[in-house]
Automatic annotation (TrEMBL):
Keyword Zinc-finger: no
Entry keywords, A to Z: Nucleotide-binding
Protein name: Uncharacterized protein
Domain of life: Eukaryota
GO molecular function, a single term: GTPase activity
Amino acid sequence: PPVTSSRKLVLLGESAVGKSSLVLQFVKGQFDDYRESTIGAAFLTQTVPIESGNFVKFEIWDTAGQERYKSLAPMYYRSAHAAVVVYDITSAASLVKARSWIAELQRQADPSIVVCLAGNKLDLAEAGQRQVSTAEAQKFADDEGLMFSEVSAKTAQGVEAMFKQIAERMPID
Ligand code: GTP
Ligand code: MG
């Protein structure tokens, strides 16, 4: 019979890159143009089928990106099986912040954690607002051994595929 394995996933990244929006799109298929900035962290779950016929139940911690909450992050990533480090493709500064989160995970998280670099707001590329090229982010991800996706929480492009790819990488018990 199919097995469902619970796996803890944490989202990290600068404020306003769209972490909560990605989770809302993944879990509820919804998008809001006006989201309140997260206070502390939010918890949601979503179960996804994997190729083997089994299921991964993601226990998702959507952390707050504002600097004043920075010290809380280790509580959420310490026991995580997966981390999605989000930047906004229209903000070069947000990629700098993503790099620093990845360095922190490499120092402090479980060495077996699966990390995905996610470039959000892909819908704004068409409006000429892109500041981070796909090639630059892909090269960084390759150099660091990370998964990489460009996504849009607004249009849903790439969102489910990203979480499914992460689910396929989760060890099943
Ligand atoms: P904190 O909770 O402060 O860390 O921010 P966050 O990373 O959770 O960002 P949030 O999801 O609250 O989104 C910030 C703003 O970006 C909101 O106004 C969203 O509507 C907008 N936004 C999020 N994702 C997208 C996207 O894919 N495309 C566009 N165009 N806007 C987006
Ligand atoms: Mg948020």
